[in-house]
Amino acid sequence: THVVTEACIKCKYTDCVEVCPVDCFHEGPNCLVIDPDECIDCTLCVPECPIDAITTEEELPPGQLVMLALNAELSKTWPVIVSQKEPLSDHEHWAGVSDKRDLLER
Ligand code: F3S
């Protein structure tokens, strides 16, 4: 499956949702997640993200394994998003920040 990594947090560009053929993106307050039960690994979303926030389960850095669990968990309750919208207001600042996991809002 593909995974939205912590880079998405506080940016939420949403370019990714437009190309997903199975509508597997779900939206939370400050990031998106992918439903691992719906993702078909088409890879179309990967190049769409301007900050390369999407990767495969296999390529996920060990330090970000928590994001794999969070994608699976939160996609079950957050609503599906299929249309692009404006990124979050402070996206330019947060795009350059790593280690944002603790800032994920549920
Ligand atoms: Fe997030 Fe990138 Fe999509 S920042 S909302 S994964 S385009």
Q: Any idea what the shape is?
A: globular
How is the quaternary structure best described? single chain
User: In what range is the share of β-strand residues?
Assistant: 5-15%
Note the main sheet.
Answer: 2 strands, antiparallel
Poorly predicted spans = none
Cα-based radius of gyration, to the nearest Å: 12 Å
pLDDT average, as an integer?
97
Q: Give the helix tally.
A: 2
Bound molecule types = FE3-S4 cluster
Question: Which bin fits the share of residues in helices?
Answer: 10-25%
Distance between the termini: 22 Å
DSSP E strands, number: 4
What is the chain-wise order of helices and strands?
Answer: EEEEHH
Order of strands across the main sheet: 1-4
What structural category arises from helix and sheet content?
A: little secondary structure
Describe this structure in words.
With 106 residues, the chain is low in regular secondary structure. The chain contains two helices and four strands; from the N terminus they run ββββαα. It has helices at residues 65-74, 91-94, and strands at 2-4, 25-27, 32-34, 54-56. The protein has a two-stranded antiparallel sheet with strand order 1-4. The longest helix has 10 residues, at 65-74. The radius of gyration is 12 Å and the shape is globular. The mean pLDDT is 97. It binds FE3-S4 cluster. FE3-S4 cluster binds at residues 4, 8, 11-16, 32, 48-49, 51, 53-54.
